[in-house]
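Researcher: I've got a protein sequence and the SMILES for 2-acetamido-2-deoxy-beta-D-glucopyranose. Could you write out the 3D structure of the bound complex as structure tokens? I'd like something to compare against our soaking experiments later this week.
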Amino acid sequence: MMVGTVMYALVLARITALVTHSRVSENVYKSRYDELCQYMRQYRIPGALRERAICHLASRYQGKWFDEKAILMELNEPLRREIISYNCSNLIKKHPVFKDANPLYLLELLDKLEFECYQPGELIIGIGTVGDCMYFIEKGDVEVASPGYTQILSDGSFFGELCVMTDITKRQANVRALTSCRLYSLSISSYEHVSKLFPKAMHGMETQAQQLLQNLGTSIE
Ligand SMILES: *[C@@H]1O[C@H](CO)[C@@H](O)[C@H](O)[C@H]1NC(C)=O
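Model: Sure. Here is the predicted complex with 2-acetamido-2-deoxy-beta-D-glucopyranose in place.
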């Protein structure tokens, strides 16, 4: 009888541990979420802004929070890169820049991309601010607007490349999310790293950037 009770307790403890364990990422998410709410309450952040921040967290992490960098660092390089490539397969399918790329260049580039989410209406880039990265749209629509020029870009396009590929340091347009957007950003330093390794690979994008620069002509300060 005693043995049965102990066994039962042990099994129960094991099951509880398993269940708790299987919810690690949900629990971490929940505590991140609570922390954000407490933080915003503490600093009396206005209600509308609070809502947007909560919305961002929900769409960025979808209820589970992983320390992604640490998790991927546990693996070896080929595994890590294979996982990242698989994770970016939607992006690769949609972008001509990636679709026909040399696989070695592609791995190097994907490794440097950072995933970002934006809600409808959010300003992704503000005209006149200093730009330190460019963006690839995996999913969503954005509006590019500068005085006398508007354009809508969607899945498979990129923007913000002038600050990365030319001498221009300030953003030349506002870019706003029209729908909820899933983007990947590439910083100037990552771009320089990759283009040093694969000087020809980015040629198409660079030509496009130079063309855009010419079209903008004298309006650039
Ligand atoms: C993989 O994609 C998810 C979104 O689908 C994103 O949250 C995550 O950061 C991406 N990871 C990498 C390494 O690109």
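Model: The chain is about 55% helix and 15% strand. The chain has two domains: 2-65, 69-216.
Researcher: Great, I'll pass this along to the crystallography team.
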